[in-house]
TrEMBL record:
Its EC number is 2.7.7.65. GO terms for biological process: cell adhesion involved in single-species biofilm formation; negative regulation of bacterial-type flagellum-dependent cell motility. One of its GO terms (cellular component) is plasma membrane. It catalyses: 2 GTP = 3',3'-c-di-GMP + 2 diphosphate. It is an enzyme of class 2 (transferase). It comes from the Bacteria. This is diguanylate cyclase. Residues 165-299 form the GGDEF domain. Pfam families: FHA (PF00498), GGDEF (PF00990). PROSITE patterns: FHA_DOMAIN, GGDEF.
């Protein structure tokens, strides 16, 4: 399981008041935007929502104010209120100042964040956590899937551009992976993917996002990191994969990866799509230059100039 946890319990959230076992608890679940898939239990009193450091439900999204909205519990009901935000708080598509929340109501804040208000008891809560988590994970490897990666990258790029923070991306895939499938079968190829994902996951920082992009291709979002530091992380991955053989059908098989690195600050028109395209271009440069190597995207170099 990733070191970036999606399971938030009342023990971890100081704003949440303890309640008796079996009692129904109110939550907001992030359906879209930053922190997609996470469940936040609501306090019996007031729960603040925003991008500020002291918000109970903290979400980094373009257009969310530091103190954006709040949910208050009064006389057995939960009320959503705008907290003087710049862009407003919406319930089920309508802008609201104060709104009585009902099961299933959708709360829209910022450019792309959508939260769902719901109730769960203990058993249902565990099931829902498992359900939300599985929707964000690649079934074969257990790391984040492409949908979650795309969502987080958009949010991280917006945050980096707003605050002038560095952000880099590493894309890599397994060299000659088709040959592994042809020689040993697809089950062996799947075993390689699982083993590789486990090795890499153990080296990533808790603030990074590691995901399977598709097939034998993986991605790593490196927050608050420039191209030089991201290339060091990429080289660690390369050495981690090639430094220890993979066991297949009773044999030790040497496997390598090629990696491409892109830096948001090096893009002429920075965006999430441009960051992916730049890293992908660097990956193919690594393939052209002999594989089992790391290449950094350079807009001035001929192979990547058109990205």
């Amino acid at each position: 399981m990733s070191k970036t946890t999606l399971v938030l319990d009342s023990e971890d959230l100081p704003h949440v008041t303890k309640r008796e076992s079996g009692a129904r608890r109110a939550f907001v679940v992030v359906l879209a935007g930053d922190r997609m898939g996470e469940m936040f239990p609501l306090n019996e009193g007031r729960t603040s929502i925003g991008r500020g450091l002291h918000a109970d439900v903290r979400i980094n999204d373009e257009g969310i104010s530091r103190s954006h909205a709040q949910v208050e519990h009064e006389d057995g009901h939960y009320y959503l209120s705008d907290a003087g935000s710049t862009n407003g708080t919406f319930a089920n598509g309508e802008r609201v100042d104060r709104y009585p929340l009902k099961e299933g109501d959708k709360i829209q804040i910022g450019a792309s964040s959508v939260l769902r208000f719901t109730y769960h008891d203990d058993i249902d809560e565990d099931f829902q956590r498992s359900l939300y988590e599985s929707a964000l994970r690649d079934r074969l490897t257990g790391v984040f899937n492409r949908g979650y990666f795309n969502n987080r990258l958009e949010s991280d790029v917006a945050f980096a551009l707003r605050h002038g923070k560095p952000l880099s991306l590493v894309i890599f895939d397994i060299d000659f992976f088709k040959q592994i499938n042809d020689d040993y079968g697809h089950a062996a190829g799947d075993a390689v993917l699982r083993d590789l994902a486990e090795r890499v996951q153990g080296t990533t920082r808790s603030e990074d996002i590691f995901a399977r992009y598709g097939g034998e291709e993986f991605v790593l979002i490196c927050r608050d990191v420039d191209a030089l530091r991201a290339s060091r992380a990429a080289n660690r991955i390369k050495e981690l994969v090639s430094g220890k053989p993979f066991r297949l059908a009773g044999r030790d098989i040497e496997i390598s990866v090629s990696l491409g690195v892109s830096d948001l600050s090096m893009l002429l028109e920075p965006s999430a799509q441009a960051l992916v395209e730049a890293a992908d271009s660097a990956l193919y440069a690594a393939k052209r230059n002999g594989r089992n190597r790391v290449e950094i995207y350079d807009p001035e170099s001929e192979p990547t100039r058109l990205v």
